[in-house]
Amino acid sequence: MRVSSSRSPSFWSDVHGVRLRSVGLPGLGDTVKVHACDRDARRLEVSYHRDGRLIGALTIGRTSRLAAYRRTLAEYTP
Description:
disordered N terminus
């Protein structure tokens, strides 16, 4: 079964002047990887994995990075 990027759950919100975006199902992850964290610049990039596979991502102030996660999630074939 192929999961299309249009079916991957996602949301965004503007909070205190930063854009928070999420794709996939990060709440189901058993492993969290922080790829970037810059408190001064108010930027964060986190991916969530289950059994070694990407299942979700969250970005704050790094909107352009979400497209790559969305593509990877769309390519997932269980």
